[in-house]
Design a protein that fits this description.
Distance between the termini of chain A: 47 Å
Oligomer: homodimer
Helix content of chain A: 25-40%
CATH class of chain A: Alpha Beta
Number of helices of chain A: 11
Radius of gyration of chain A: 18 Å
CATH topology of chain A: UDP-N-acetylmuramoyl-L-alanine:D-glutamate ligase
């Protein structure tokens, strides 16, 4: 079975949306990526750090999904990374209310021996130096390295981010981040500039408007499923990345055609994630239900124009 | 050949975008609809009004495209409707600088005798009372009535707009207008509410993010083609409506499956419209070039997931 190495935060989130608010609940990029990737036949491990305030039941939840958590360091006396945010009424923007780095501040990632030859590496959103350190520990060149990042690192660690961008095959960013990174408003031009920075594949996430995959002159546009209600967008991007990388790890085929499928799987899983608070929907989601919704993605976008008309 | 009746403005526009500005050039909803629909095998006529300041060459341009202009009233001594606007840097929003209704203020549309049994009626953006008057003059029930409208009429003529909405099969509005009309943020909920107001088919245009077609519980999502540069968005929505209604008039098939194709044709034509100022690109566009780009829409959205995985 192919190995998927995931690096990212495992954390506490407190979330407010127009529909309600939560106390500290399970969150973090690696958590969402791991849960999402667990729908595919891969052997996955998370590299992360928490404090000893982190509940065993949360760790068990990851283990139950077949995720190797031996590289989630538990710092004695330490506190787990905490993020708190409030979404605006349109759910497309949010304010960060509180960020407590805690144990994340001094995090030195340690890749487990048996994952130093991982087939696919998913670098979840974290300081670029942590992402670089993970790549430096690998003993074999992975088939695919996928990078997710955000505007925060463009603001405060751009040289380091540029370094890691050079070393990855796929980057996933949202539309505003693509524009910030390149100074180009047109996403076609932005993707071309990011392509020139290193990654062969550029994925631009547009939230409720779907996602674009760029590769050379080729473009693929995956819609987001139109939903009656988006309950909580937290983790949707990470869930997308987890589905994308998990599917590619399972299928061992990194052609453009198959990467289209990976984008659809990622969008499909993200469409579930936003239906409930935090990880709740992903934890309750069954594989049959997930596969069933793929049919909706097909009817949503497939058409049959005969070009002879 | 099927008859397509188009009602809408034929006008002068003056446009400013980040790329430049124009003097008074050819514009108007019916102009864009007519040009776009002329790519399909239909017999079409425009019902509209202009002043005698309107150049004969603009009228000839429509005639050259096979459009019957006998119902474009020319008011002696009258001035043609004029709109002037400035687009913001992102081209997604604009300010109206000037609107001179002129001859449009007292416009009494007169449907030509030989179009009172039109197969498809395309009600372009105009006062709802003008749209209703056109429907009242018909002597046979059309196969399809398509309505395009805008927020302006929701603000100042909502009861009349509600009347015309009741009487159409398809409505096309943009996302913000769908939200304004229904008070629903979710486009799925908004479409359901508009559906309940009358139209069997609801098309929600999302500009660079594509368009959604709703019918009962079914949804179709057509992407917009990602473009390097959007030069001038003026007329894109009308061009979309012209391609949509023109294709359906040609094909005589108003099934949901074929309406998907109509949406793709509309999106395809709109993707050309925005490449130059005003009607310039549409006037220069050849049919082969138009059909060629359909292939790009196919590769953009079609994927092949086997659901057995």
């Amino acid at each position: 079975m192919n190995k998927l190495l995931i690096v990212g935060t495992v954390a506490f989130d407190a979330i407010e949306t127009p529909f309600g608010k939560t106390d500290k609940i399970l969150g973090g990029a690696a958590t969402y990526i791991g849960l999402s990737a667990s729908f595919f036949k891969t052997q996955s491990a998370i590299v992360s750090v928490v404090g000893d305030d982190f509940p065993q039941e949360y760790l068990d939840l990851l283990t139950d999904r077949g995720i190797d958590i031996s590289a989630i360091e538990i710092v004695p006396g330490g506190k787990t990374f905490f993020w708190s945010g409030r979404y605006h009424n349109d759910l497309n923007s949010r304010d960060t209310l509180d960020t407590q780095l805690n144990t994340l501040a001094d995090f030195q990632p340690k890749v487990p021996e048996n994952f130093k030859d991982a087939d696919v590496v998913m670098l979840g959103n974290l300081h670029p130096l942590v992402q670089i350190s993970v790549l430096d520990q690998l003993t074999a060149t992975p088939k695919l390295v996928v990078l997710d990042t955000m505007n925060f690192w463009m603001d405060c660690a751009l040289p380091e981010l540029t370094e890691v961008i050079k070393r990855v095959d796929v980057i996933t960013v949202n539309d505003e981040e693509a524009r910030q990174l390149t100074g180009e408003y047109s996403l076609v031009k932005a993707a071309a500039k990011i392509h020139a920075m290193g990654p062969e594949y550029v994925v631009i996430k547009k939230g409720e408007h779907g996602a674009l995959l760029f590769h050379d002159k080729k473009v693929f546009y995956a819609p987001a499923l139109p939903l009656e209600e988006v309950f909580d967008p937290t983790g949707a991007g990470d869930t997308f990345a987890g589905g994308f990388s998990g599917y590619l790890a399972q299928s061992e085929n990194i052609s453009f055609a198959n990467m289209k499928n990976a984008i659809i799987y990622g969008s499909n899983l993200a469409s579930f994630c936003v239906e409930k608070f935090g990880t709740e929907r992903m934890v309750g989601l069954g594989k049959a239900e997930m596969l069933d919704r793929l049919q909706q993605f097909k009817s949503l976008t497939q058409f049959d124009i005969s070009l002879a008309e």
